Amino acid sequence: MIKLGEKQELKIVKEVDFGVYLGSEEKQVLLPKKQVPAGIQPGDAIEVFIYRDSMDRMIATTNEPLVMVGETALLTVAQTGKNGAFLDWGLEKDLFLPFKEQTYKIKNGDQVIVTLYIDKSERICSTMKVYHQLRKDSPYKKGDVVQGRIYDKSDNFGMFVAVDDQYSALIPKHEMVKELKVGMVIEGRIANVKEDGKLDLSLRAKIPQQMSEDAAAILEALKEYNGVLPVTEKSTPEKIKDELSMSKAAFKRAIGKLLKEEEIHIVEGVIKKL
Description:
It is built from three helices and 17 strands. By secondary structure, the chain is mainly beta. It folds into four domains: 7-61, CATH 2.40.50.140; 72-131, CATH 2.40.50.140; 134-202, CATH 2.40.50.140; 207-273, Winged helix-like DNA-binding domain superfamily/Winged helix DNA-binding domain (Arc Repressor Mutant, subunit A). Strands 3-2-1-4-5 form a five-stranded antiparallel beta sheet, with no helix packed on it. Strands 8-7-6-9-10 form a five-stranded antiparallel beta sheet, with no helix packed on it. The chain is elongated. 25% of the residues are buried.
């Protein structure tokens, strides 16, 4: 059986001037002459990858693709067009990425994480919707600092991240204390490893270090606002996030630290610099 989008070992059925045909008497695929290893004969088996050429004909190649059906890979955008984009995947014909399978607007030279699928017309296509294909067996544990690429977002859950471009992770909505965009490469700390192996990420440092950073940010804000902070402990989480790019809980911890260090005081609920 000849499987599109996969590597497989097929027997040589017959030789022709322009290559060899592989497969069986019932179904065959051409391996072009320039791809045929020296010295092989009919009956020999050869490992090839099956895809479609520029004429949309099924064809074999001994070249190694950067990704196959069921895998994910980081590929470079070679060209964008009116129907989608084309990615360099190591073969002569670029890989098609339809507009409807893009999770954000991409341009030439961008790097995107994709997986492959076979469309209704029996063509190999790619998609940036890789959630179900990312691995859940990362070697990381809680507290580790990792790097990942944001590949999709959800208004309900947060930002979906591929750690090391291969492991499934999420920046939960409550951890999004700064502006994030799909396509960004971020560094984060593993806040939780779920039972199924998926990772929760935090963009904040561990609490003692983060508290010091947040306290410094509050002092800087006090300078900008002439010694009077535009938010208080009674402000909404949204207002605090807009003004200081931190959660309300982090804000309250930092305020406590600054009070203890006598850097600030609170007068009728208003936070002022001492």
